[in-house]
Amino acid sequence: MQEIQTNSKETIVTHDMHDGRHYGAVTHPIYQNSLFTFETHEELEEALAFEVSSIIYTRGNNPTVRALEERLAELEGGEEARCFASGMAAISAAVLSTVQAGDHIVCVDGCYGPARRLMEEYLVKFQVETTFVDGKDLMQVLGAVRPNTRLMYLESPTSMIFELQDLEQFAALAKKIGAKTIIDGSWASPCFQSPLSHGIDMVVHSMTKYISGHSDLIGGVVIGAKQHLDQLFRQEFQLFGGILHPQSANLFMRGLRTLPLRMHKLQENGLKVAHYLENQSFIIKMNHPGLKSHPQHELYRSQMSGSGSLFSFETHIPMESMRCWANQLQYFRKGISWGGFESLVYIRNQPDNRVIVRLYVGLEEPDDLINDLKQAFASIEA
């Protein structure tokens, strides 16, 4: 039977072509094995010769993990994917696969904090330098490029303030100077942004966030061209050993099944709450690319098909009062991660005495969340 080709993300995450070895199981079995053996020594030798694709040892390939990787690659439009035990393991492997001693990185300012620490603090031990730039300003990016620039690291939108980069401009510049591009695409998930189609070389996701969707797993993935991912497999993947456990892979596949459905509902909920906040007088600035008021909304529309439900707002209300406000919230838990079913709040001081509040809008009824925000603000005004 010829398989029907589809571009539907809903169909991709739902439908698997299982063969007879799995007895028609609708969920891929968990291969909880460290070792896989062969009938003859010749078969073992042949497998070792093709270790990138062979099932030999779970630190390399495992059937359950490979099923997840194949599905993620298809969903993101990449040739190959490799899953890791955490988002930072994926980011670190992707970055290290592109640079060596004496190289230079251009990284957007406002990227995920631990990713910044990797480049700003850790890699200097190996003579790899990083320049952080405003990703909105192409002239600043051009000014940061050096003859030894080998990587441009993007995160679009960035953490906390949610600024975008023009992916096609970055990709074109990187190709011109012989550099690779990596983007952290966790905010949009594989559903709402397709960086590879804009010329980006590798996409990393914290699978802990939207792909899991249940706040009970830690994992990451790197997706890109087979040639580069095969090289990464032989080095950073195999040698550092930050592999994803088969049981976790099975649970990530569970989350992946409902990812498109959840993303559309989360987008709807997030925009409804953001529109309410946008009209409040005590809010100085809203940081949500999906809002028409966002200065990069047209760029958002040109390179994304939807938005996540993580955004922030800025206010001059003092930090002490905003802490009291957060403590009055009943439906927003206080926490630093996001991407699950529950709504979250995180508050931080800005250098200019503004307070920035990051909200993650979950799957609760959005009117309940809005009423919760209203009562919390009323409590600090009283």
Description:
The chain is an alpha/beta fold and 382 residues long. The protein contains 14 helices and 12 strands. It has helices spanning 9-14, 41-49, 63-76, 87-96, 113-122, 138-144, 167-177, 189-192, 226-240, 246-257, 259-278, 297-303, 319-328, 366-381; strands at residues 80-84, 104-108, 129-133, 149-155, 180-184, 202-206, 220-224, 283-287, 310-315, 332-334, 343-349, 355-360. The protein has a 7-stranded mixed β-sheet with strand order 1-7-6-5-4-2-3, with helices on both faces. Helix 5 (113-122) links the parallel strand 2 (104-108) and strand 3. Helix 3 packs parallel to helix 10, helix 11 packs parallel to helix 14 and helix 13 (319-328) packs across helix 14 (366-381). The protein is globular.
| Rg, Cα atoms, Å | 22 Å
Approximately what portion of the residues adopt beta-strand conformation?
Answer: 15-25%
Low-confidence stretches: none
Query: SSE order, as H and E?
Result: HHHEHEHEHEHEHEEHHHEHEHEEEH
Straight-line N-to-C gap = 69 Å
Which class best fits the helix and strand makeup?
A: alpha/beta
Number of helices: 14
Give the tags:
382 residues; alpha/beta; seven-stranded mixed beta sheet; five-stranded mixed beta sheet; 14 helices; 40% helix
Q: What's the topology here?
A:
Blueprint: H1 9-14, H2 41-49, H3 63-76, E1 80-84, H4 87-96, E2 104-108, H5 113-122, E3 129-133, H6 138-144, E4 149-155, H7 167-177, E5 180-184, H8 189-192, E6 202-206, E7 220-224, H9 226-240, H10 246-257, H11 259-278, E8 283-287, H12 297-303, E9 310-315, H13 319-328, E10 332-334, E11 343-349, E12 355-360, H14 366-381
Helix pairs in contact: 3-10, 11-14, 13-14
